[in-house]
Amino acid sequence: METRSKDGTWPSKQPRAVSSTSKEDENFQGQPGICGLTNLGNTCFMNSALQCLSNVPQLTEYFLKNRYLEELNFCNPLGMKGEIAEAYADLVKQAWSGHHRSIVPNVFKTKVGHFASQFLGYQQHDSQELLSFLLDGLHEDLNRVKKKEYVELCDAAGRPDHEVAQEAWQNHKRRNDSVIVDTFHGLFKSTLVCPDCGNVSVTFDPFCYLSVPLPVSHKRVMEVFFVSMDPRRKPEQHRLVVPKKGKISDLCVALAKHTGVSPERMMVADVFSHRFYKIYQLEESLSSILDRDDIFIYEVSGRSSISENTREDVVLPIYLRERTPARDYNNSYYGLMLFGHPLLVSVPRDRLSWDALYHILLYRLSRYVTRPSSDDEDDGDEKDMEGKNSIPKPGNMAGGSSHNPGPEQAGPSSGVAGGSRAPVNNSPGPSHWPQRARRKHLFTLQTVNSNGTSDRSNFNEDTHGVSFSSQPYIAIDWEPEMKKRYYDEVEAEGYVKHDCVGYVLKKAPVRLQECIELFTTVETLEKENPWYCPSCKQHQLATKKLDLWTLPETLIIHLKRFSYTKFSREKLDTLVEFPIRDLDFSEFVIKPQNESAPELYKYDLIAVSNHYGGLRDGHYTTFACNKDSGQWHYFDDSSVSPVSENQIESKAAYVLFYQRQDVARRLQSKPQPGSSDPPAPPTCESLPKSESMDVN
């Protein structure tokens, strides 16, 4: 035999290892409702939703006075055999017993996971999604309608709105009648207009909460690094404002205003792990670039192209690599490690020889690479080199060519700095371009693939010069000793911040009323969700407008902070200004109003579910006003602290709970058990500053 505890719970439902009560709590007596919920592992979303719902006065009174026992619906096929309602009732009774500082909601968590598999385990979830499931589950478990009858939905067909609305609400109540409907359900008016025949369809639909959109900015801020062709200038960090649905060319235009460099002389690349993850074309969409990507914009010559053979200059992607002797297997890429930032370098086609490229790159790296002294390197005239070491024609590559490498000449891809013979290979390619012998080269050059690893011969030579069968990549290979001696790593990593980086771009706050206005504006249906017009007999992209007809006693407003599209996902951290008291809906309700009862359209805030963090991770907390004391508290899992009203409004506000003023007055006027006189009505007042906590 088992005896139910004083707080309404069953001892067998509380596992010994994680009992919801402790010896310390047995003699504890605190304010009812000021009770934390233990985080079972990523269950802060559930705790936040439960604390909000627990502070809805009429719903909590319904469970505390055991009125739910008479209305449990065990045979509803859409319900959960009354188990969700019983588990929630046990939780409310514990929280409002005043005997616990915090409780462990493990039984409730198990029940939720049993009936909603998406909440199984301990993954992160959305508090609004849990709230939606819980409200629906409680409604079906407490539905007073034991056998639902079939109700046919009827269109307005030209009838007056009040007649159609009354019929829709009566039909809804014929199938759905519970404390959840009494407390949270309102009525929409939905108007659809066919764009072809002009047919108008008007229906009235019930709702349990409002999911209102936030005004979305059509601009985005992007941080990029600009790399000038002038080797003396360090890379510059810029913060640019561009259209959210813009193209790569818009990014270049925005940067041109800061640098004075023409957009036609810019190339945009995503740099990741010392290599080019992607080199963008001007017509590509900016939506493919994430905020965490490292975007570099390189200045190139105005006659450059990375792919067109008709341009006078070609742009070569340049990687930096260092040899690792411990794993150097015959100069293969296994013994080479990428380092530093890659470059995009414009090279004239008539100077495409290894020796010319060596001097061009030495010039581009001159800010952080020291040139050898005359004792280290033979003097060489770059102009003389241009004439003698141009790229050989295909016909000259045959045997007997006067340009064949001699004993003192070695191609850079051989990995030999000088004094060794290049490998014998009769096929044309960059590995066998002639190069002047030098006693001291700082680095050697190598053709590689886009990953900067394996050799790749992608140069084709004809009588007109050089063409590329695919994108050429060049690696600058350093010996460890040479790199240590001539390469300044600190200077190479240096950059400067443009003045624009110091500007703080503040997002203007929006009023809650603006979000509601946006919710009630006309919109056109998307292609994925067309409307079947009964007049045209085909699916149409109709215009749709939602209006508020009647509002519930407790209004739940869900701010749609999480934005999901085909191309991007983001969380909107816009500050939404919402009133603590006197939220007036009279301008949004289109049903003819009772002017003698303005409190029917005014609401006071009673709870807020907050979300801190981003898309991948975050934390949920709750602000709630205690129905007995009228004081605001901050619920952070098992921790509960008093707060002042001026701390409630923040960028983290996610789900708002509002109580209609006439309902609040009705509840406050009811005498408490054991009291001869009605108590003074509590109001949600702020505490003195010394008694409140600061919420970060």
From TrEMBL:
<comment type="similarity">
    <text>Belongs to the peptidase C19 family.</text>
</comment>
<dbReference type="GO" id="GO:0005737">
    <property type="term" value="C:cytoplasm"/>
</dbReference>
<feature type="domain" description="USP">
    <location>
        <begin position="35"/>
        <end position="661"/>
    </location>
</feature>
<dbReference type="GO" id="GO:0016579">
    <property type="term" value="P:protein deubiquitination"/>
</dbReference>
<keyword id="KW-0963">Cytoplasm</keyword>
<keyword id="KW-0833">Ubl conjugation pathway</keyword>
<dbReference type="InterPro" id="IPR018200">
    <property type="entry name" value="USP_CS"/>
</dbReference>
<feature type="region of interest" description="Disordered">
    <location>
        <begin position="1"/>
        <end position="28"/>
    </location>
</feature>
<dbReference type="GO" id="GO:0006508">
    <property type="term" value="P:proteolysis"/>
</dbReference>
<dbReference type="InterPro" id="IPR001394">
    <property type="entry name" value="Peptidase_C19_UCH"/>
</dbReference>
<dbReference type="InterPro" id="IPR028889">
    <property type="entry name" value="USP"/>
</dbReference>
<dbReference type="InterPro" id="IPR029346">
    <property type="entry name" value="USP_C"/>
</dbReference>
<dbReference type="GO" id="GO:0005634">
    <property type="term" value="C:nucleus"/>
</dbReference>
<dbReference type="InterPro" id="IPR050185">
    <property type="entry name" value="Ub_carboxyl-term_hydrolase"/>
</dbReference>
<dbReference type="InterPro" id="IPR038765">
    <property type="entry name" value="Papain-like_cys_pep_sf"/>
</dbReference>
<dbReference type="GO" id="GO:0004843">
    <property type="term" value="F:cysteine-type deubiquitinase activity"/>
</dbReference>
<keyword id="KW-0539">Nucleus</keyword>
<comment type="function">
    <text>Deubiquitinating enzyme that removes conjugated ubiquitin from specific proteins to regulate different cellular processes.</text>
</comment>
<dbReference type="Pfam" id="PF14533">
    <property type="entry name" value="USP7_C2"/>
</dbReference>
<feature type="region of interest" description="Disordered">
    <location>
        <begin position="666"/>
        <end position="696"/>
    </location>
</feature>
<dbReference type="Pfam" id="PF00443">
    <property type="entry name" value="UCH"/>
</dbReference>
<keyword id="KW-0788">Thiol protease</keyword>
<keyword id="KW-0378">Hydrolase</keyword>
<keyword id="KW-0645">Protease</keyword>
<feature type="region of interest" description="Disordered">
    <location>
        <begin position="371"/>
        <end position="435"/>
    </location>
</feature>
<feature type="compositionally biased region" description="Acidic residues">
    <location>
        <begin position="375"/>
        <end position="384"/>
    </location>
</feature>
<protein>
    <recommendedName>
        <fullName>Ubiquitin carboxyl-terminal hydrolase</fullName>
        <ecNumber>3.4.19.12</ecNumber>
    </recommendedName>
</protein>
